[in-house]
Amino acid sequence: xxxxxxIDVRLKTGFADGASTDGDVYLSIGGREFSLDSADxxxxxxxxxxxxxxxxANVQNASDNNPSKPFQLRTENLDRFPVYLRFAxxxxxxxxxxxxxxxxxxPGPQQVQFQALGGNDNLWLGTHAGLTCHLAKS
Length: 138
Fold this sequence. Notes:
Oligomer: single chain
Number of helices: 0
Structural class: mainly beta
Number of domains: 1
Mean pLDDT: 94
Shape: globular
CATH superfamily: PLAT/LH2 domain
Distance between the termini: 18 Å
């Protein structure tokens, strides 16, 4: 078992009309939530972006979204808490179409991977459709 130093989260937004959002998106893993936000215009239709938390971070507020600090996450605790993506819409009518999501903990030979959706699947998230999508260890 090891300290978690990096998490790569790959998100694809769907192709459907109205798939985009300016809402906020979070990953819950290891008992914490992390904000997935970059300097770009995130979560636009057809976007495919990887958000890195921890070592090599490319997210906004990287120090607040670090799996190593101030509370060190560990791989042995990954099975103790649900892993999920949470959408925080801008308003009650805001929705987002998720085409793919995966999270890779400590990328490399000892990595742990979680995934939900793929292929031609997609999921609408919003106030009227639900706000979370759980990921399973793959």
